[in-house]
Design a protein that fits this description.
By secondary structure, this protein is α/β, with parallel strands linked by helices. Helices cover 32% and strands 22% of the residues.
Length: 129
C-alpha cells in the first residue's frame, strides 16, 4: 500500500496515463459530466471531499501548464475564485457555458463532493522537464 500521495487507485492510475496537453476537469457535484472521458467520482457527501482538497492533491501530482475556470466563479464563489487565482497564476476565464463545452475535450474528469457554485476548473497537463 502506498504511504503517501493519492491513494485512490482509480485516480492514481488515471493520472499515470495522462500526457502533455491532456485535460483534467476537476468539478463540483453540479457540473454536467461530459460523455467520453474517464471519470473518477470521489464525491462521498456534500462537501466531502472538498474542491480545495482535491485540487491541492492533484497539483502535488501533476505538472499544469494552463487552467481555465468559469468567469462566474469570481462573483458567485469568491472563496474558490481566490483559491484558483492563488494556486493557478496562469488561470484563464471563460463563460460557464464555454467551460462546459471545453470540458468535452478533457481526458479525465475528477468529481469532488463540492456543493458550491462554479467550483470547477479545467487543467492542462504540462511536462516535468
Amino acid at each position: 500500500m502506498k504511504r503517501s500521495g493519492i491513494l485512490n487507485r482509480h485516480l492514481a492510475g488515471a493520472l499515470a496515463e495522462l500526457g502533455h496537453g491532456d485535460g483534467v476537469l476537476v468539478c463540483d457535484v453540479g457540473m454536467p459530466v461530459p460523455a467520453g472521458p474517464r471519470v473518477v467520482d470521489l464525491a462521498f457527501r456534500a462537501g466531502i471531499p472538498s474542491f480545495a482538497e482535491v485540487l491541492e492533491g492533484l497539483l502535488e501530482e501533476l505538472v499544469v501548464e494552463g487552467a481555465t475556470a468559469a468567469e462566474e466563479v469570481r462573483e458567485a464563489n469568491p472563496e474558490t475564485a481566490r483559491l484558483l487565482a492563488d494556486r493557478l497564476p496562469q488561470l484563464a476565464h471563460v463563460s460557464h457555458e464555454e467551460l462546459k463545452t471545453l470540458s468535452t475535450t478533457a481526458r479525465l474528469v475528477v468529481r469532488t463532493g463540492e456543493a458550491r457554485p462554479y467550483a470547477n476548473v479545467l487543467l492542462r497537463c504540462g511536462v516535468f522537464f
